[in-house]
Amino acid sequence: MRVNDLVKSSRATLKHGKMRSLLTMLGIVIGISSVIILMSIGASAQDYILGQVQGLGSNLIIVIPGGSNNGKFSSPAAAQGIIITSLKQRDVDALGRDPSVAAVTEESRGQGAASFGDNSETITFDGVPANFFTVRNFVVAKGYPFSDADVQSYNHVAVIGSSLADTLFGAGSDPVGQYIQVKNVHFRVVGVLESKGTGAFGIDQDNIVLVPITVGQKQMLGTDYFTDVMVQANDTYTIDFAKARVQTILEQDHSITDSNKDDFTIETQQDVLSLLGNITNILTLFLAAIASISLIVGGIGIMNIMLVSVIERTKEIGLRKSVGATNNDILQQFLVESVMLTVIGGVIGILVGGLVVGAAWLVITKVFAVVWTFEFPMSAILLAVAVSSITGIAFGIYPAQQAARKSPIEALRYE
């Protein structure tokens, strides 16, 4: 039987039972669109997360207190919420003297409530030196960043995040010159940051208060250690060389002779990007695998409907065989019908998935004002087409074989 005749005959059969065909395709449509949606959102989320990390700066080295067992299946103690006091001012001074280091900026971080009048918001406050803004690429959109003189003089000045400014003072207002209260300490707002989104350590950088390190560390937290230290590598040295120098300097400063016993963890942007990339890839594949379960369910639905169709068309099968149709002709007929159902369902599923992803992008970018990249990966489309075709063949073979094996005499006698 010619392919053209098979397609025409299958199309006529599917048209004859439109409602049954639509219901049969529904499982495939849901499965394919689910795969498309989850893979697309996963790719978009990956771009967003990696983009936030890349905003740290390509030549930054992050030093976190607490060892990580040389990277073997554990995270730094500080990342687990355990307070580690290993990073001190002597470490910052030692790092700053090395020629491979262009700049060092330390942080003393805490949490509390920031308030202005009747408005209050729980925020992260960060005690930082004046060079923090340059090293971390923090742009002050309104006002100005505080200076070394403010740090040395323990001045109660603050630079606040853009969303916090809207929360405390109202959208479109200028908070510069106003006074806010953080943990019962009054600060004069000297600047408002440009919107940056979520940054390192999962901190919302638009809901933050930056204060001089001397005030944040000594007066607000009452500590003599740092939450983390950011090292900017000198451009004349490679990032790997600078990272090795940072490790050597800190080990010497802490009298450590075995690197497996380091009481600090060093990461570069590339390290973080590689780790996050692996995690998001695994999550995307995991979500796609879960969505693919619905494709199996849809395939089983197609098989059941085709088996019912075989029973309903028993006389038709007997008649075709009586006029010369072979077992192979009958097998091809039912197999083509099954594949057509899944391919049409796959195309509809791709369109539905694309529409849902587009709608999600509009909501995220317009309603929630999040910088979100619209991703519609070709791999998702190829996977959807491949899986839908395989599903049609795999779940269509058994009903097609059942139809092909029927005896023409018994089929004609079937009531």
What does this structure look like?
With 415 residues, the chain is an alpha+beta fold. It folds into two domains: 3-52 and 274-413, no CATH class; 85-262, no CATH class. It is 55% helix and 17% strand. The protein contains 13 helices and ten strands. It has helices at 3-16, 18-54, 89-96, 132-135, 148-152, 162-169, 213-221, 239-253, 269-312, 314-322, 327-367, 378-404, 408-413; strands spanning 60-65, 101-116, 119-128, 140-143, 157-160, 179-182, 185-193, 208-212, 228-233, 264-268. It has a six-stranded mixed beta barrel with strand order 2-3-8-5-7-6. A hairpin with a 2-residue loop joins strand 6 (179-182) and strand 7. It is elongated. The two termini are 28 Å apart. The model is unreliable at 72-76 (pLDDT under 50).
How many helices in DSSP terms?
13
Rounded Rg: 32 Å
- Number-wise, the strands total 10
**Structural class designation:** alpha+beta
Helix percentage: 40-55%
* Largest beta-sheet details: 6 strands, mixed, barrel
The geometry reads as elongated
The pLDDT mean sits at 83
Spans with pLDDT under 50 lasting ≥5 residues?
72-76
Q: Please list the strands of the largest sheet in the order they lie side by side.
A: 2-3-8-5-7-6
Oligomer: single chain
Distance between the termini: 28 Å
Helices and strands, in order, run as: HHEHEEHEHEHEEEHEHEHHHHH
Proportion of beta-strand residues: 15-25%
Provide the number of structural domains. Answer: 2
